[in-house]
Amino acid sequence: QHYFIQSNLRMSDCKTISTKSEYGSISAPDDATPGDVLTTDDTASLVPPRDLSTQDLNDVYKHMGSGLSQYLYWAATALISYSDYAELTILSVALPSIRCEWQLSTLFETAITMSVFVSYAIFAVVFGRISDIHGRKVVLTSSALVLVASAGVSAGAPNKWVFLAGRVVTGACIGINFSTVACYATEFAESRLREVGLCVFNLAAMSGYAAVNALALAFLRTVGWRWFIVIASLPILPALVLLIYLPESPRYLCVSGKQEQAHKTLRFMARLNGAQLPDTLNLVCQVETQDLGSYKTLFSKQFRNSTICLAVMYFMDIFLEFGLIIFLPLYFSSGVCAGNGMGQPPKHDCVPLSTDDMVNLTLTALCALLGVMGSILSSHKLGRLGPIRVSSILQTIGIALLFFCFNGTFTSVVIMTTKAVQAFINTSIWIMLPESFSTEVRSTAVGFVNGAGKFGGVLGTGWVQYFFYVDPRLVLGMFLATSVVGAAATFVLKRETKDVVLT
Description:
503 residues
């Protein structure tokens, strides 16, 4: 619309006078002097006054502002992410103690570890699509409830078979959660605040990894592995309470054609934030009910490059991440690096983690947390693609250095630095992932890429469990190969998502 502005303005000491409205500004000529009377008859293309009765969802979010509602959603996101990574890490630090109690064979240990990641991968792919079809809330709430039960089963398991069953169900729940919660974290605030949600998601996940290692240092030897599982699993309980209380994602409701439910959720959020919305609200949404959860859309021209490159990057990253989760406790407890190369293959003995081992694992986890923070800051300042490409090269160099061992201190520094860089890459992928796809397929895309990554985790953990006792250099060689392929994929990825507006 065009507006005609007739104004009689007297120049003050300023050269530019703004209307202090949404109609733009009127600038004085360069030769104007204080005291001149200006008469303008301007025709300008200007934005009309905001009418929230018909608005895009981002504008409604801007109107209500960020407040208690976003904080509660972010708290739920943080607790779920924390719990998921805590459950993954529990296995690596508790397994040496469980091995001693039940005299587990190498084969059964491998079965326990791989079963978690196999169920994780399968359910991540399947429930990513279900989340796009049926909503985020119902999927997350159901999964969190089952996760509570599976943690209890694992802690109280009378034998190794019941423990295995409990870990299979735990893996399934983690896969479901991760495919959904990353979308959930970005969909209840305006697009410019999505980095906050993704920051919370990633920091909480890595905090779960760090906290479980710290808890192991503090409690594992005194309370035993059963109570350790109970203590480490507690944060899922407040997450479940919040999920029951909080309504569905407004952005998902809007895109899936459930306008009235979206209105109710937005009014609920506005009340919590102390804001007020109009009595009538007509959201402008791109309703795509026929494309909800469509795999065909993921491989359309619009999304094909992002889908394939992110899947390859995440497969390689999770092969390395979960491989390291299993590799590092074995590495520290076996003393495999004797200072002159890898030395002899270690024996599969009943050797629980020592206090020094737990200290090293905790420090490594804290370095990973620093990597997450570095990724968040660099992504905000420098964009997504540049930092992830540089960090992929640094990670490859770090893994190559591990072949030489040198001395204990230097090797520990290399391991901690490499873990920090790997966490940096992982976080960068998770920041880009929900930004790269539209709402109708966002959770499907996250589930597909997440599932691809977890199949990498299955192979990574299985490779470490078996080949570590054959020759640790075979483990490092595969780590190096996956790092190189992942780095190559970052250079093939085309889309920079820093300033993308969520749709």
